[in-house]
């Protein structure tokens, strides 16, 4: 190679290296500043003894999902692995517990002011559960969030596999619970005194295994059950994109089903549907339409379900609960938005609690879930869509959400630390891309080449 050309090549490479180094330094600096200036994590705010939210109209109890065994996620990114927290009306923390890996459904106990029943998952090592692999214990507990007194109602040991932790359990009668059994694709009623299963509905009795998710590992992902006053059960089959009504004697009432598989305009992998009865302006269903990033309501009209209301905003991402309160407000659990919000009749946020990966929230004194709340039609609620926050124009966030598959965004919401927002995530992946490109170029620029021959030859490039 001529000396002048060799010199120009070296100059070009040097310029590229300087550019790469500057980009890396700037990106690392941005991430470092974001980390150092990030607000305290929720456990740190609890430990401070200061209020964690503005005053609200009652105590709010929140269950958070958490990630990994106790201590794992906290040691890596500073977030708690799972929490049950009660925030008093003045914004102070009335109760806090993080002894289990994850907390799921939480409901007020009828006839009490401060006691809740909830589902929690406890990791059990193989030697303790006397199995070849580790296990989980699904625990149903009742806790008085004023006194801290806790009593176990029921527990059940399961193998450690994906989608085996119960997400929802409701009181069926004085002696029995009804369980949304995510692991076995069924709902069952169990007597908590005898441990005997008194009734069950198996999804295979009404659905083909060709529907939904992969069978048998995560076929239906039944994540919610609600006992209605008329004796029917309302179930959420997440992977079938349906809410179904089950008559204990006859099975699924198909003409009452809300949603169609893979018709994502109606529902897309929903969570926690709440039934609003006729006495409150129903029949209606308020449901967290999770992958559509909204909470939506459907009204029963002439034997069909018609959309009557929805809420979305520029931050709302993968909501998993929406409770209609008696005053017409809606309490929303924004899981990947890391917050609980209360929105009024016009869709304005009137209260907020920042907390990592929440699953469900209850406002004590308002009834179980949406029991005491009016339908959107009867209360003349105004819908609110994400575009109303952004002025309807395109943003970098909206473009990214349109291009990147929802499953990837959802997964990133699980693994990225809470201090890392949308901008930080873009910087991180830009940094990884630049470093990767730099590494490839450096390999290409190496003065040596490898030839596949017998014997192997390594020679210097010309």
Report on this structure:
The chain is of the alpha+beta class and 462 residues long. The protein contains 9 helices and 26 strands. It has helices at 3-37, 42-48, 72-77, 126-129, 376-379, 387-390, 396-403, 406-415, 422-445; strands spanning 60-64, 83-87, 93-97, 102-108, 115-124, 135-144, 150-159, 168-173, 176-181, 186-191, 197-202, 222-227, 233-237, 242-247, 251-252, 271-276, 284-289, 294-301, 304-311, 319-324, 330-334, 339-343, 349-354, 358-363, 448-451, 457-460. It has a 4-stranded antiparallel beta sheet, with no helix packed on it. A 4-stranded antiparallel beta sheet has the order 4-5-6-7. The N and C termini lie close together (8 Å). The mean pLDDT is 90. Keywords: Membrane, Transmembrane, Transmembrane helix. This is Arylsulfotransferase (Asst).
